[in-house]
Write a structure and sequence with these properties.
mainly alpha
């Protein structure tokens, strides 16, 4: 048991990144990681030694997230820029543009269907292979590839539409 708990502790940073990619919020991600660990420890008898503990934990996190996500619209908190004094000595415009871009990406990911959000978090954020993602989610690898392709296309469209709108607004053209 001590070895498994030690492995779970080593997994926490990766699990937190995964949870943050799913939830888009640090506090919610921490809650998801805590719930995942609690459930894993409570149901440790369901984990099969010799199988991937990482995959089992990701699956638990994904299931909890889907359960919590169902039945309610995900509400996105507006991201605010840090106070101006935090920008002293650096090019505030570059930092602001980077943060706005990141906020647009996070918002666009949040608008994807849950099955696509999970795959973006697993493959694009966590670097999990298509094969492992298929195994974790118990779906064919072709489905992983198809969902990721649709997710990437939707993100590209959302981000290019957003950029076009921003350029028009900045130039005073409106739509």
């Amino acid at each position: 048991m001590d070895e498994i708990q030690s492995r779970m502790i080593q997994l926490l940073p990766r699990l937190r990144r995964f949870a943050l990619a799913l939830t888009g919020d640090k506090d919610k991600a921490d809650d998801l990681v805590q719930d995942t660990c609690e459930r894993a420890l409570a149901h440790l008898d369901q984990w099969k030694p010799g199988t991937s503990l990482d995959s089992w934990m990701y699956r638990i996190a994904q299931n909890i997230w889907v359960d919590n996500h169902r039945g309610r619209k995900a509400q996105r908190d507006e991201r605010q820029l840090d106070e101006a004094e935090n920008l002293m000595g650096v090019d505030g415009r570059n930092i602001t543009e980077s943060r706005l871009t990141l906020a647009a990406v996070v918002e666009s990911i949040g608008r994807l269907p849950p099955d696509q959000q999970v795959l973006v978090a697993m493959v694009c954020v966590e670097g999990i292979s298509y094969k492992e993602a298929a195994s974790i989610l118990n779906i064919p690898i072709g489905t992983v590839m198809s969902r990721l392709s649709r997710a990437r296309q939707a993100l590209f469209s959302a981000l290019t539409d957003s950029a076009t709108t921003s350029v028009r607004s900045a130039s005073g053209q409106g739509h």
